[in-house]
Each structure stands twice: as C-alpha cells, then as structure tokens.
C-alpha cells in the first residue's frame, strides 16, 4: 500500500458550541422522525463530499438546514439548532468543495455531540476520524469513506466510536 505525504495538509481547529446537556430521553415519535431526517440529510452531505460533488453537498446542506430548523427547542436548545443551521448554511452557500469540506468538519463535530446525546437512528452510527485532517465525521457504514479528501484518500481514517 502506497504511503501518502500529508505534511502539506493544513488542519483547522474547530470549536463546538453545542450544549448537549438537553433532555436526552423522552422524545416522541415525531421528534425521532426529525432526528432520522437530520441524520439522513447529514449523511447525504458527507456522501456528496466523498464523491467530490459540491452541488449535491450544497443542496443536501440546504435540506439539512430546513430539517434542523423544524426541531422543537424543548428537545434541542435553540442555540444548538442555530449552531447546526449556521454550519449547514455555510456549506449550502458555497460551491467551493474545499470550503465545504472545511465547514463540514465543524458541522460533524457538532453533529457528533448531538448524536452522543440523542438516539438519531435505530441502526449503528459510527464516529470516524481522519488523522490527516484531525477531524471526525459520522457514518452509517463501518467502512471508511473519507469526506475530507474524497478519492485522493478515500479510505484514510478509522472508526473511533459506535453510537
């Protein structure tokens, strides 16, 4: 297997402002459906970035944005909804794949915090990590498909946690 020189890759430190101390249990069926839709649209963003499709990433981020804005603030705080909306809005607003991938790192960090507090799916959700980007993402599959480098480093990463 060929080794890649990643010394020229820059990583951005991202901050997570999500407060995950909200109510982690007792969500109704409608809220669970919304969580499932949020995860699905997030995964569509990730998959678009894996394939290098900036247009699809932008439209998936727009769907994510519309879905997350329907969440009841009693379940996820207004501040957390705003943070997720802001992250997705940045991805939606640009067709620059490099910038989308940068914004996705922050969205992923914040989505992971939400996923650890709420059951987003009946199926396993994997927290995966790219050591070159120093960033994680969520996946519905255990197999690594790196959204930060796409085809140039498709399998770079590891599963860090199963939620």
Plain-language structure description:
Helix 3 packs antiparallel against helix 4. The protein is mainly alpha-helical and 163 residues long. It has 4 helices and 3 strands. It has one domain. A 3-stranded antiparallel beta sheet has the order 2-1-3. The two termini are 30 Å apart.
**Low-pLDDT regions:** 1-24
Structural class: mainly alpha
Mean pLDDT: 87
- Helix percentage range: 40-55%
Our count of helices gives 4
Query: Going across the major beta sheet, what is the strand order?
Result: 2-1-3
Quick recap:
With 163 residues, the protein is mainly α. It has one domain. 46% of the residues lie in helices and 9% in strands.
Notable features of this structure?
about 160 residues; disordered N terminus; 4 helices; about 45% helix; mainly alpha; 3-stranded antiparallel sheet; single chain
List strands and helices in order, with pairings.
Elements: H1 29-51, H2 54-68, H3 78-93, H4 97-117, E1 126-130, E2 135-139, E3 158-162
Antiparallel strand pairs: 1-2, 1-3
Helix pairs in contact: 1-2, 1-4, 2-3, 3-4
